[in-house]
DNA sequence: TAAAACTGTGTATCACTTACACAAAACAGT
DNA sequence: ACTGTTTTGTGTAAGTGATACACAGTTTTA
């Protein structure tokens, strides 16, 4: 099995991602499958987070010994990579007006946001390559289609996809981290938000942080009762700006020629 | 010392962030300082990454025992939070035209990008609260100023800051992950990029991924020789779109009234 | 009917975090 | 000055986790 410090590890990973780890015909029939292992690991990570994910626990969950997993996976890192692609699943098909690329991208963003809230640990997974698995690329494809239709070409379409991806990932990350931190502190959402507001009021010096102080004074950081402290709305705002920016870019290029 | 599963942990953290862990007057004079510990930990994380960061190694680096660190810090998690704020430092002062909010934000983005490349591990640090340290907030403030001047108010200014922050963080994350993965595989940049292109060509099915296939055919994924595989340029593209979007939003609001 | 290849397992090693208790050090109040 | 209290740095030990390695049993191939 290829060491992690080896170019072969990348090829091996691709093989597993795309061909699901076909086994040679010799030897005993495997009792487990890669898919089964990845599924058990995903369930565990969903329920208790990436920190609670250990080879031991996955193995126990499946009723096998820890070391048996190493017959399917070169190590924990590789397992996480496989989990990440599997958990991504396929993006939901877009059913709206095919000409409305903005709506299609908004739906994409929304679906991805939900995916990350469903599998928060994927945001912390350390991947060794750019997206290369079938599901990761399916999401990529689903964004490229409307962007291409909007009029973006080549590298611009990639850049725009990455920009939207960046926004969703980070905003989801903000939301997830806040929820996790809140839960670890044993606070309600309201308590947590009020505590943050109070902390800002206590420590933020108006001379050093004038703009921030003004916002605090406006009550911007007070508890809102919104889910995820309103991060979803921040994301909506951001996506709207980004799509506006893309639209005006395409228009300018069209009018002015390349 | 407050357990992590305790609201007091948050107050304790704030105390350390803002008042640097003042010590009671009784007892032996401490030989270490919080700052010293954080600095050693930052150097280690810079050099070898967050995985290599252990209490043992930090202590050894300083010439003390592992457990001595626990007199200054409640645990590794808290240390990482302190490191993150300290490593953020203060944003460089903006020296350009004060009326040119776009240039100011571009400079901010650029400085932040460099910060993340200098301290890549901060992108993986798990923080228990929204930004609450003096340096984190200083960066926040530095973005709020030009955005406020641009004409954004209240929650909009926050949303826009988060959007730009999201872009920089994630693009830096892409760059960092690619570099790390490349290094672990023992490949040159060129080899790594060529390998990715080759993998896409091998596995991507034109029927299932038509838009992606078109891009691959255009040679978009071929090695470029650009630093960080051109991610910096993708970020520039993205920031340009975002600023355009913000600008048109402000203009529309001004013309139409709130 | 071997020989070869592969599976699941038991064992062992190494690194890590952190709880706990102890002795020495420094201060506070008398 | 003195004594009790608080705090520091340390030694020890427990618990968890990743993973290397060798072994015995299983299945296929020649």
From TrEMBL, chains A, B:
It comes from the Bacteria. Keywords: DNA-binding, Transcription, Transcription regulation. Gene3D superfamilies: Homeodomain-like (1.10.10.60), Tetracycline Repressor, domain 2 (1.10.357.10). The keyword Transcription regulation applies. One of its GO terms (molecular function) is DNA-binding transcription factor activity. InterPro entries: Homeodomain-like_sf, HTH-type_TetR-like_transc_reg, HTH_TetR, Repressor_TetR_C, Tet_transcr_reg_TetR-rel_C_sf. GO terms for biological process: negative regulation of DNA-templated transcription. PANTHER family: HTH-TYPE TRANSCRIPTIONAL REGULATOR RUTR, TRANSCRIPTIONAL REGULATORY PROTEIN. This is TetR family transcriptional regulator. It comes from Prauserella muralis.
